[in-house]
Amino acid sequence: MKDIRKRTRIAVLVVGLIAIGVAPALAQDKPADNMQIVREKVRADKKLFVAANMELNETEAKAFWPIYEKYQDELFLLRSRTAKLINDYAKAFKDMSEKEAKVLLDEVMTIESLGLKLRKTYLPKFRQALSEKKAARYYQIENKIQAALYYELAKEIPLVQ
Question: What pLDDT is recorded for position 81?
């Protein structure tokens, strides 16, 4: 079971990084339907990882997965916004003006605020579907995935010049 979790975690991370970091670049060179395939692969891999770690019974699964899907739809919008922010930063980081720095930093703060608001909005829904321990586990899983993605992005994104 640990081997499956490890492989799943790596797959989610790699595909997630592709979706966040490379998706906008791919979108310029490939048809839109290819990007849809990448997005679906990311979602499927992540769902597999979540399922392997949540250990849901049938009743919990029936309640959890519809909420999860809606949450992921909204989370995807934030991740898309993050991808745009990264592309904007990549275009400006070498010769960034004070105005560009302010706009980019304000967008980072907005994305982070919206992420917290989204997590708070969905918490009562997850609590209704799951026990407190399983709701906490799900939020841990999401936090670990986000931390891994942010770590990989932080390694690759240079400091403002």
Answer: 93
Residues 90 and 96: their CA atoms lie apart, in Å, by 10
Q: Which helix (H) or strand (E) holds 160?
A: none
Model confidence, pTM: 0.77
List Cβ neighbours of 50 (8 Å cut-off, separation of 6 or more).
68, 138, 141
CA distance 101 to 96: 6
Give a yes or no: residue 161 inside a domain.
Answer: no
Q: Which residue range is the domain that position 33 belongs to? A: 2-156
- Residue 57 corresponds to which tokens in the numbers above? 């019974």
For the chain, percent of residues with pLDDT exceeding 90: 56
Q: What is the pLDDT of residues 31-64, one digit of tens each?
A: 556 767 877 887 889 999 999 999 999 999 999 9
Cα–Cα nearest to 23, from 11, 9, 34, 13: 34
Q: Which segments of 18-133 are extended strands (E)?
A: none
